[in-house]
Specification:
Blueprint (H helix, E strand, L loop, with lengths): L2 H10 L18 H33 L15 H11 L10 H17 L7 E5 L6 E4 L7 H22 L3 H32 L4 H6 L11 H14 L11 H4 L9 H25 L8 H4 L11 H23 L5 H32 L4 H21 L70 H8 L1
Antiparallel strand pairs: 1-2
Helix pairs in contact: 2-3, 2-10, 2-12, 3-10, 4-5, 4-10, 5-6, 6-8, 6-13, 8-10, 8-13, 10-12, 13-14
């Protein structure tokens, strides 16, 4: 992996000014320039979070046929500011059993790691500061492995969640933090593999260079499978519905944030929304052309809308379109079960992303070094993909033997029925076990469908005190 940036820098370094391997030219920037840009980025993120909270409430309100916030300020715009002030003024409670230092450090880790990502996101090309002749890129910094830096920041951010759950000294926060660890590992693998296809097509891991490589075609079109995988992974990465298992209210109260209050809770809340902005900006930069204008506007007057301050507008519009996808998904889908969630990540997204990378690598290799017609390769790849999907879709599932056959419920090798209340309290079944049918289903099973001499349906206990309680309820 370490040789890839060196090779990329060697190939394109001679064509770009400034630092080899990147397209943006930071040669005129000094310490004051970097400081002003950093402050502007922080202010932009904090104000965007306030706007995102209002935006989410308004959109979900419209989806649920209700107005949403409309009292504080015009259109309810000051409602997010009022909520922030409420969190600041609430009583700050520190749990007695908590590890005080780690308990305070955890939300800071989450926020600081989330603030680092926008350092390499290009808002636009070079811009001229008004009333001066000073020209600088609309970007804080860039380097040949900028996307790897983004993935590293996202990976470190989960330590805030893990340490917050562990240091709280409580069961439910610990369970929420463990879930978050498994979730990030699962979906960051799929996310990283989906970004590899962009590296292959762009020939660089620099964000400014990737935006420049999309001058003629945005990468989401030729890399549509990788784009879909990234969109699913970014929702799972940010713990948003339907993937908000680390903070499932019905199971874990509030997950890793259960024992936090006041400003410490607000920091976790802030980190979550900043991460939403981060992954939306990454999707815009790597797949949607970055700050480049859409096609009809980009062709007007030799691309005049891709110069000056206009590109910042296109970047923000694309980023907020992805923010709308977050809200849309939240207002549409239900929370998944944890086993379904992990099955989607490990058995669907990761194999699909890995297979796509292999196919794309072969196609690019043939295009660059082979003499085979590209159209023939694409047709063959499409046919192979259809065959693989058909095999996966129609592959017969392994079903248990029916009753009366070896291994069936009523056969000679019948297993002991699982009793969830054998220990005096309910426990979930292990893999391979199944709960007996409820007594409420007895009326649905005809007498002739029952085995001879059986007064209850197959696999059902004749008397289950829990069923009696349910019937009485």
């Amino acid at each position: 992996m370490s040789t890839v940036p060196v090779l990329v820098a060697a190939q394109i370094g001679a064509e770009t000014p400034g630092v080899p391997g990147i397209a943006a030219n930071f040669s005129q920037d000094n310490g004051w320039t970097y400081l002003v840009k950093a402050v502007l980025i922080i202010v932009f993120l904090l104000t965007s979070v306030l706007l995102a909270i209002w935006f989410e409430r308004k959109v979900v309100g419209r989806m649920q046929v209700r107005p949403g916030p409309n009292w504080h300020g015009p259109f309810g715009l000051l409602q997010s500011l009022a909520d922030a002030m409420k969190l600041l003024l609430k009583e700050d409670i520190t749990v007695k059993a908590a590890d005080k230092f780690v308990y305070l450090l955890a939300p800071m880790i989450s926020v600081f790691c989330s603030l680092l990502v926008f350092a390499v996101i290009p808002f636009g090309p070079e811009v001229r500061i008004p009333w001066t002749d000073y020209v600088t890129p609309a970007q804080l910094t860039d380097f040949p492995v900028a996307v790897l830096y983004i993935l590293a920041c996202a990976s470190l951010g989960v330590y805030g969640i893990v340490l917050g759950g562990w240091s709280s000294g409580s069961t439910y926060p610990l369970l929420g933090s463990v879930r978050s660890t498994a979730q990030v590992i699962s979906y960051e693998l799929a996310m990283g593999l989906s970004l590899v296809s962009v590296f292959i097509m762009a020939g660089s891991m620099s964000t400014s260079e990737i935006v420049d490589s999309q001058t003629a075609l945005w990468w989401f079109l030729p890399l549509l499978p990788a784009f879909i995988i990234y969109v699913i992974s970014m929702i799972g990465e940010t713990n948003r519905l339907p993937f908000d298992l680390p903070e499932a209210e019905g199971e874990l109260v509030s997950g890793y944030m259960t024992e936090y209050s006041s400003m410490k809770f607000a920091w976790f809340f802030l980190a979550e929304y900043i991460n939403m902005l981060n992954v939306s900006a990454i999707a815009t930069t790597l797949f949607m052309g970055g700050w480049r204008a859409p096609w009809p506007l980009s062709a007007i007057n030799d691309g005049m809308f891709n110069e000056g301050w206009w590109p910042i507008l296109w970047f923000l519009a694309k980023m907020w379109a992805f923010m709308f996808v977050f809200v849309w998904v939240r207002g549409t889908l239900l929370r998944m079960r944890y086993d379904q969630f992990m099955h989607l990540g490990w058995k669907i997204l990761i194999p699909a992303a890995l297979g796509w990378v292999v196919v794309l690598s072969v196609v690019q290799g043939v295009r660059q070094f082979g003499e085979v017609d590209t159209r023939t390769v694409l047709i063959a790849g499409a046919v192979a993909a259809v065959v693989v999907l058909a095999v996966v879709w129609f592959w017969p599932e392994k079903r248990p033997d029916p009753p009366g056959r070896p291994g069936g419920t009523a056969g000679p090798a019948a297993k002991e029925p699982f009793d969830a209340f054998a220990g005096g309290f309910p426990v979930p079944p292990l893999p391979g076990q199944s709960l007996p049918p409820s007594s409420r289903r007895r009326a649905l099973v005809p007498d002739d469908a029952r085995p001879p001499g059986a007064s209850t349906p197959p696999g059902e206990h004749p008397e289950n005190p829990h069923d009696k309680e349910v019937d009485r309820a």
